[in-house]
Hints:
Helices cover 38% and strands 23% of the residues. The protein has 8 helices and 10 strands. The protein has 205 residues and is an alpha/beta fold. It is globular, with a radius of gyration of 18 Å.
Amino acid sequence: MKTNFFIRVKENEIINAKYIESEIGNFKDKKILYLGPGDGFYIDYLNMNSKCELACIEINKKFSKELNSKGIKCYNQNFLEPIEIYRNYFDIVFSFSFVQYIKPNNLVKFNNLCRNYLRGQESFALHLSIPNKIKFSQTMNNSLKSKKISLKGLIVNYFYFYLRNGRFEIKNNSYWHDPIAIKNLGGKEIKTSDVDYRFQYRLFK
């Protein structure tokens, strides 16, 4: 029996929420900054707003307004603009499927901002589910070698993903990042994330 598409989407979101919780660990009574919460599904599912002191930064005006109406402090602004009152304030800064919207040449600034928000040596930033540029290249090469991808499929892939300045990008202004480059910028505990073609990393103060 086929599952309704919307039910499948909801089930996938629940799986993602459980993954977020398993990676963050205990966030009860912590001060947390959530980057790019979107419609706030994960906040609601994890009951984050009642378990911790939570603030968010969301560039989408509609989502930001909806979160504020729920009593969740959400700043509607560019992620690369600092919020000075939160310097050295948070225990945890985290994101899920978000860093793909940070241009590679802005990663140094982004990582430094995340560190500036952290308040102590035990605090950390955790960025989950980042498209892995190396994995994409490997998958394409392996598919071509095993003839699992047709010429038509190859054309479709390169229409959707294209190479600019040596970096894979997606048409909707998101980016496949290189975990080796992330490591060189101070990323720690770099490993496969929620799916095998995505990775994650931590930053410490």
